[in-house]
Amino acid sequence: MLPYPLLSASLVLMWLALNGFTLGHLILGSIVAVFTSWGMASLRPAKPRMPKWYLLPKLVAIVLYDIVRSNIAVASILVAGRGKRFKSGFITVPLDLQSPTALAVLAVVVTSTPGTAWLEYNSLSRTVLIHVLDLVDEAEWQALIKGRYEALLMEIFE
Amino acid sequence: MSTIEHAADLPAWAALAVSFFLVIGAGLTLIGTIGFVRLPTFYERIHAPTLGTSWGTGGIVMASMIFFTVLSTRLVVHEILIGIFVTVTTPVTLMLLARATLHRDRVEGNPGVPGEAPAETGEGDGAAAGAD
Amino acid sequence: MSQMILSWSMMFAQVCLVVAMALAALRMSRGPRAQDRVLALDTLYVNSMLLLMVFGIRTGKVIYFEASLVIGMLGFVATVALAKFLMRGEVIE
Asked: ipTM > 0.90?
């Protein structure tokens, strides 16, 4: 009946949020959610696994804190402008993550923190190319991504 | 400059909080766009709009949520949807654009771009691009 | 007093966002390459979305939030299609 319960639940919630919380919209949204999850099931059979989903709030807290911190850092770089020199560059980071969902979450985290941008993932050598705006020490950035995000994502998804 | 009529019974602390978040959000967006105009290469410029999409959007969403929750004129859900939507879609567009740019730079043989399929770890030094 | 601060900060936010949109348009016209223009278009979309949200707070109407959702969605689809075009040379394969 419901191959993707989380997807269906969030679809119903979004439908109600956009249209108003009434019984009619609850029924209509549920019908839409059920049919969408059937369509989803025929598109992609592999289900994302999240054994330790209760660690997600910790990840969200870490990411929010880092977003605030790097916003301040990038804004000060941009305001200082020409006066203060900064060196930007590419780094490659080897990853041990396997799950596609975890990789997607890591990509969203890396890109949405200002100052780092996820460029491309090489699935053969399992490395990722990241561009860093303020590249002082390459090993430090690699250690940051591996230690701060990847370890936690490994714990959540694998 | 007239005051806003429907905000007449907004308490002072809420008005100050809304003002603070509005100024922070819009200011960070403006700083990001200034950097977008001033930075010299494309790969540096790709960082500038993320200021607007992270705390720029976050600040204005927070301001709007506080405003309408305190006034309680309607349920606060549209802002959360907008925030989630922007957070999820920005990395997708930036990643696609960056990959397209890498592809184009490699095809044209531009200098300062890491080659196809970075083979081993710790190879980034030689390929790192300078600041300008 | 707080009402004055509120209305002035709304004015400030609107001016900031309009200037940001003008700067993005400047980058779009200046280029120098196609990917810069696409990124500038994406920035323009996000900024206009934020401007509509500030309008929504200012007028207290829900319709502006619907509009900004639609603009955000259109901007996303447009940028993805343009990036795909830059990558392959055609949108539909």
From this structure: no
